[in-house]
Amino acid sequence: MDNFFAMGGYGAFIWPAYGAAAVLMMGLLVLSWKSMRQREALVETLRASRRKEQTEVTETVS
User: Considering the entire predicted model, what is its pTM?
Assistant: First the structure.
């Protein structure tokens, strides 16, 4: 098992690189999730606004 973790003497370079990549991927996941939530809220706001406008037009025509 030690040979696997040593990776032919390059383990000191490889494992931190894996760690950095994992941290970056998690950061991207969190940022993407936050952005998605903000955009979903914006879409819902725009839909509600459009429904309100359509209701007003319908009431004016009736």
Answer: 0.71
